[in-house]
Amino acid sequence: MNSLMKPVYINTLSIAAPNMVGLDEAMPVLTGQAQWQSAEFPKLAPQLLPANERRRTTPYIKLALHVADEANIKERQLPAVFASSNGDFQISNTICNSLTMEPKFISPTQFHNSVHNAPSGYWAIAAKSPAASTSISTGDSTYASGLLEAVTQVLSGQEDVLFVAYDYPAEAPLNKFSDVTEPFATACVLSLNKTASSFASIKLDITHNSVGKSQCANASLNKLQESNPIAESLPLLEALCLKNNTTLFLPHLNNAKLKVDIIHG
Amino acid sequence: MPISPLFITASSMINALGRGKTATFSALQEKQSGLRLSKNLDFSTWLGKVNGVDDYPLEDHLSVFSCRNNQLAKLTLDTDGFRNAIKQAINKYGADRIGIFLGSSTSGSEETEKAYLKRDEKGDLPADYDFMHTHNFTSLLDYTQQSLGLSGVGHVISTACSSSAKVFAAAHRHIEAGFCDAAIVGGVDTLTQVSLYGFHSLQLTSAEPCRPCDENRDGISIGEAGAFALLEKSPAPGSKVVLKGYGESSDAYHMSSPHPEGRGAADAMTQALNSAALSASDIGYINLHGTATPANDAAEDKAITSVFDTQTPCSSTKGWTGHTLGAAGITEAIICALILENQFLPANLNLKTSDPSLGMHVLSENMKPEKTINHVISNSFGFGGSNCSLIFGLTK
Lengths: 265, 396
Prior knowledge:
The complex is a heterodimer of chains A (265) and B (396). Chain A contains 9 helices and 9 strands. Chain A is α+β, with helices and mostly antiparallel strands and 265 residues long. In chain A, helix 3 crosses helix 6. Chain A is globular. With 396 residues, chain B is α/β, with parallel strands linked by helices. The interface between A and B is large, with 74 and 70 residues. Strand 4 of chain A pairs antiparallel with strand 6 (154-157) of chain B.
């Protein structure tokens, strides 16, 4: 349906998940040379945020900024797409708790952190980026919708775009109502231009055929793929790191799939 | 880079002024505000509340999505003949070729507020609470898609008060890239305790009906609203208004205060002009973000006077509807379409004493323009420094 789409290059890549904080640490697992195991997730402290700003943020915001910073091309101020299914559970929990008390009071910092675009706002301030930024959600298909939005921005604006996707587990009592059990985030810079460090190019299409979603090549990652909506990116991250030319199907709205053709070279 | 225009071929809206475009337009003409003094809060403020939402149930088979926000979505879909227009669009394009891009700052998060008030002795939330089908932003998208029988691409944008302006840009990009042939854009936002007490804690709510651009303005009045529009590449019979351009930017300044010089706002307006291939003098009216906080209106004024001639008529319609947050962008976009279709410029309601420090030309009374207005611009600026400006034009 959309075979005329120009290829879009993935020029940088970052990841943060248990036992895979940074692409270097993740590479053995993403290339099938090591098994993935769950582990305690470290407290991240993205250095691009000034310490006084960092103190105001949550693990969810720090997760987003960490992968954004790692994927961003230094000194570039790119348009950005931020994608997260659930938003910041910790903020929802704190604010809703405070509204059960009398007198009702919400701290100003908690309130401005409660907007879905809080990570993108902190990012723009930290990266001093006046470029456009959006913040989206589509539940379990958030990664695919975010990738699609980022690609349409590259195609329409002819500019490189930073795509950042992240979700972070809830604490009690919200954890019983969410299926996010592991932190997971990934980011990349998408471009019409191939560079020396390009991973591959992709072409996207939507398919409504009843094809199943792609599974991880490394079976030890299957559990992680089910632990966080953003971890639906794992088959794509594996293909990029394995340098496989392949076609993947990522969950999209209404049981449709985002068809991703990956071409190396 | 200039973009190709998209026709607004159908639209619907509900806000504190009433159900539908006719009710909204009549209230504008008659200078009847929808703001009412709130009775149920710990502080004094005026609200733009929509009546009749709580007793407007969803379809039985979609009842899992029940919450006030989705009920307002249904009420809006059932207004202004919108459902029928979508049925025709499905026949024309196919259900899988119509994209849907919706803005909200609240979604059904009120359900989480209510659930926390019902925690048991162990601190657990009630078993019938359902985060994914109410609070999660995708609830609004999933409900609307299923209610309309759509299966195309789309997403929810939540960038605070610019959310449902940015949906026009996303829809345009997805159509241009060939991922859909037409798109529904929308915004639905409902009053929540989080937004009411949150804005209050920032000392940004007024105890009076909000007075945008007034020398004595002292904060916002919060409202709620739903609105949808269908965007197509070709006109439908009678369609008179097109999306001509859009501009998006970030302030990169502060999480809850605008850049004092309106840097990001000016950038968004300039980009919108460039994408519409228009110059500032082509714009006959500016619908202000105009929230009525001292800092917001001052920053917007600096941005506007840096881009436009100071005689360009401006007004904020927030004195009528309140600030409908995630639904403000599309509510004011449809007001702009009504302005173009009817060649009627709304006053900046509640303006008593013009702020002498503002340089822009704020309309104190409703007026008929002396010559035809062909293009208008609508501004939406949100927390996190998220800015979006949209340009709408009259078709020739």
